[in-house]
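Input for the complex:
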Amino acid sequence: MNTNHEVIRRLSKYRNVMRKMKELGLVKVFSDNLADAVGVSPSLVRKDFSMFNLTGNKRGGYRIDDLVSKLNVLLGKDKKQKVVIIGCGKLGQALMNHNGFPRVGIRVVAGFDSDPAVLDAEAPIPILHIKEIKDFVTKNQISVAALTVPEPCVQGMVDTLKKTCVKGVINFAPLPLKSSDGFLVHNMNMEQEIENLFYNIHFAETNPTDSDI
Amino acid sequence: MNTNHEVIRRLSKYRNVMRKMKELGLVKVFSDNLADAVGVSPSLVRKDFSMFNLTGNKRGGYRIDDLVSKLNVLLGKDKKQKVVIIGCGKLGQALMNHNGFPRVGIRVVAGFDSDPAVLDAEAPIPILHIKEIKDFVTKNQISVAALTVPEPCVQGMVDTLKKTCVKGVINFAPLPLKSSDGFLVHNMNMEQEIENLFYNIHFAETNPTDSDI
DNA sequence: TTATTTATGTTATATAAATCACATAAACTC
DNA sequence: GAGTTTATGTGATTTATATAACATAAATAA
Ligand SMILES: NC(=O)c1ccc[n+]([C@@H]2O[C@H](COP(=O)([O-])OP(=O)(O)OC[C@H]3O[C@@H](n4cnc5c(N)ncnc54)[C@H](O)[C@@H]3O)[C@@H](O)[C@H]2O)c1
Ligand SMILES: NC(=O)c1ccc[n+]([C@@H]2O[C@H](COP(=O)([O-])OP(=O)(O)OC[C@H]3O[C@@H](n4cnc5c(N)ncnc54)[C@H](O)[C@@H]3O)[C@@H](O)[C@H]2O)c1
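Predicted:
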């Protein structure tokens, strides 16, 4: 399939909007509604759906229920998505206790750290020693980790994880890690994002429909 | 100018790479070097520079010193970039104490919260009551805020900030806020990013050169 | 000094992504 | 039940973004 890289991100947004619409008691939705909510054109909404054979009714739009459950399967949201947090410092601990994750089916199953002071194997979400990472991810079939270790440790940690069943990481250190063969990296670079926002505010011509990035 | 939306982000990456090269004692850099480091083609690096009249030497590449200081001006990194954190809970506190920000010239000048229990006007980075936000940003000429309040408060907070000198926010709540007229929003949606990573791992055809997003 | 090498700067080309436009079919109207 | 409305689904077109190609000028070598 000729899958555009942004389309999955948009499907996820459509899904979230529809989940909220459903809570309001709504039953159907039109491409115009989703377009407005997500900030794209209606035709792109339809094309995105069409690309994955998500069909609606020639007049009555799409049935929310139907579409959400199909999207759940498509996006893998019908299964619990297990992640581990590597580096339980300020940011790592915030992520471990973030209640937004369980709400959307993301389950933080453990944290790992090298500092004995922060370890706690008995906590609801245990914090284990980093030396146990390989065993743990293997035993628990973890495919995703969040990297919240100091920048100098990041590359080494990636090299370690590559030898396990972990297939991708969200990297929070401000260095642009690159994906390779079977190992995907998504970078969340807050410094970069703030710098970029400053630039757009102070130097870029103000473009009203500048997208949310 | 016909500015591509991604180019500023790349300039920022080039700059970071060059700063590190400089620390290693290097003096000049070639488009190939930056291309490798950032994961784009050398011609794109040159085009990005050319777009902003950043020129090198027909044979000897670019002088790092020169380029970094020009990029500093271009990106506004020659001035301190002041931000406030709105919502000093788990994530907000992590951001307030994040040592990566000062390191790149981003200064968190204050936090704001509605919960009296977390206020501390005497701390090095004071945490003030949210009712003081308007006065503070006006007096201190703040143009950027990080939004780390619970999702239901986000829209209201944006409406408040729009009436001040704040011209943009980084939104950490998992709802896709849209930019409008003179008010820019950059969304950092971790839930979305993790979902997307899961999808790419489990369903997408493994594409080695899948970019860092 | 002349030839050769090499990396820039820029134009031409290719690829990717989004919008436009419209034929189509379902649902309403009279 | 014929005509009208309306929103989907998709091919054609436009716009955006990245790569490839190459002429050019500085540096080196002969
Ligand atoms: N604090 C933030 O809000 C924030 C924001 C953006 C990015 N980040 C990035 O996230 C990372 C962590 O930041 P932080 O502020 O939480 O730092 P921190 O110092 O509070 O936490 C880092 C943790 O990693 C642990 N650690 C160090 N080496 C390790 C190793 N080899 N194996 C396992 N654990 C190890 C430390 O013991 C510590 O607990 C950094 O790369 C930082 O740039 C943080
Ligand atoms: N914790 C994380 O790691 C994490 C990760 C991703 C996104 N987020 C998002 O960041 C936001 C904050 O998450 P958190 O985990 O820090 O939550 P939290 O409950 O720990 O913190 C929220 C803070 O906002 C304050 N607050 C509430 N209403 C306010 C108002 N009207 N004005 C000012 N302050 C107000 C609360 O007093 C509290 O201190 C949420 O939207 C969440 O979805 C958090």
